[in-house]
Malate dehydrogenase (Streptantibioticus silvisoli), 328 residues
Amino acid sequence: TRTPVNVTVTGAAGQIGYALLFRIASGHLLGADVPVKLRLLEIAPALKAAEGTAMELDDCAFPLLRGIDITDDPNVAFDGANVALLVGARPRAKGMERGDLLAANGGIFTPQGKAINGHAADDIKVLVVGNPANTNALIARSAAPDVPDDRFTAMTRLDHNRAISQLAQKAGVGVEDVKKVTIWGNHSATQYPDIFHAEVAGRNAAEVVNDEKWLAEEFIPTVAKRGAAIIEARGASSAASAANAALDHMHTWVNGTAEGDWTSMGIVSDGSYGVPAGLISSFPVTTKDGSFEIVQGLEINDFSRARIDASVKELEEERDAVRALGLI
Ligand code: NDP
């Protein structure tokens, strides 16, 4: 029998946590044959709610679930962690200045990065979901100097999945016929969903669609502002789809991309495509055997270049702001 994989989830008592934990425990994170131990990190006022979720997890009698620990101490939560899903973050409150938001998140992601550095397993893989995800990942990354760059990632998979779905609907095909969509840049309204290299049933997606007005005025804003549209419709922010994307991100990272396809992940830039090295920005990546590589050699047209540059500029501003706060 396999040794259980230690999976740490922060913000475990929140909405995304509630949509995430049951699917982790039923095998949708790592596979139907991989036992897991859950470590739930919460802030003290939310520990009781996390215990309630743990009671429900017990009540599912999931065969793969080999234990649940609940704590408000990051050093305990990340001890021996193989996979970490950093969901809890300080949301932007009305009227909050960006500097205050980033400082509050520094207070969360710096100690978590240090705890990962000091206590996580050697094969630790980190996914940051909590917003501003790219910059929170940068903060955690810089607090963990002994952990390699390629273990810290930020989630743009929900944007990626949203783009696939919108494109499939426009082209009148099933989602399985859409390949090689890319999200570039920041997980924010400036993100750039790129279909110039995407394929629809084996044909170039931009040629199939052949509608630049739709691309600029419908597709890109629909994908980038989907979160706000969901809040407007549901009266609450997306939770199940965000949890689903977190599972997809980690499952793909561990188990690999399909031949002839790629995914999008926020990763530490190596300078590819003119994205300054060290920024955590979304790229097209292929994954294999638990590691990933940026897809190289894509031709970037002027339309794409301007949009990638705008999103990267926003990431540089966020980086400069957290640097000024002494967080990186
Ligand atoms: P959610 O579970 O709904 O969201 C958690 C985070 O995910 C938010 O930062 C949210 O950003 C982000 N997120 C990323 N992508 C998406 C998406 N597509 N849709 C929606 N959210 C997205 O928040 P809750 O308030 O329900 O729960 C947060 C929990 O985290 C609370 O229980 C709190 O106690 C806990 N927490 C734990 C910490 C810790 O463990 N140290 C630290 C801070 C909080 P956005 O706000 O921009 O929507």
